[in-house]
Amino acid sequence: MIRKHRTLAAAVCAMGVLSLAACSSTGGKHASDTGSNAAPGGGGATTPTMNIAMITHAQPGDTFWDIIRKGASAAAQHDNVKYTYSNSDQAPQQAQLIQAAIDKHVDGIAVTDPNTPALGPTIKKAVAAGIPVVMFNSGEKDAIKLGALGYFGQDESVAGKAAGQRLAKAGAKDVLCVIQDQGQQQLEDRCNGAKEGLGSEGKIEKLYVNGADDSAVTTSIQAKLAQDKSIDWVLTLGAPYALDAVKSVSGAGSSAKVATFDTNPQLVTAIKNHQVQWAVDQQPYLEGYLAIDALWLYKYNGNTIGGGQPVLTGPSFIDSSNIAAVAKFAAQGTR
Prior knowledge:
The protein is α/β, with parallel strands linked by helices and about 325 residues long. The protein has helices at about 65-80, 90-105, 115-130, 155-170, 185-200, 215-225, 240-250, 265-270, 285-300, 325-330; strands at about 30-35, 50-55, 80-85, 110, 135, 150-155, 175-180, 205-210, 235, 255-260, 280, 310, 315-320. The chain is globular, with a radius of gyration of 19 Å.
């Protein structure tokens, strides 16, 4: 049974161009960097500077995380927060980053959790040390029991089921679900949810690829499509891999259609050109913004968001019917 969640209507102020000190336009290729803001003006917070550690499982080259960091930067500037961003797609290293934040006695930690057995004990250590923790993007089912104040993101099983139902409506029979980073539960949940949504009329096969190497992703998908001409849809779990899949379809001489989770500016163009049919949007800008803002609200006003339930930021769909409205936001790196 799908649990009912409390929804959040969040209004995010329109911001100017915001950046982190070493923010890469290609998905955070630096393992860590620091973002900070000067004393805010124009309605920004006048509270003392708060120090927050944001720690994610971002894979190098994945542009999805640039959007999260745009949202985090906007909140940091508004709330007079100085935050340090670090990432590793290897769970043991991510756990070490969490421990480093504990050792620095930061004022708050915002963290993703793609692997609770590996990361959960260290997250609990942060809570036990008296450091407020919020979780976002992954770990939705475990966030509250780990002691997090709240969770901001989508239920990946629900999102996957919605994608599968859309595939079923389009008549999909043989779907290839491409997983770019093996061992991450939220990616498995997307594919498993899609299988549930597709139902008995079609089938879904998983393909594991090395998401850190675009050329390897393209080659792997192309080889599978050349081998199995019955594949009529490719479902990727991130925007860069959807663009790789478009190349693979062409290279294999396949007639398969491409759909994906998540977006970036290049994917917007691909949807406009009908190379990608649609994308599931979890609104990563909102995830990053709320993660920082929630910690500030807790420190300076004792607020918590969600009433003990995850705050869902998705899923919604971006396709040819609404791509024009989304494009202007994607151009500024916020969708």
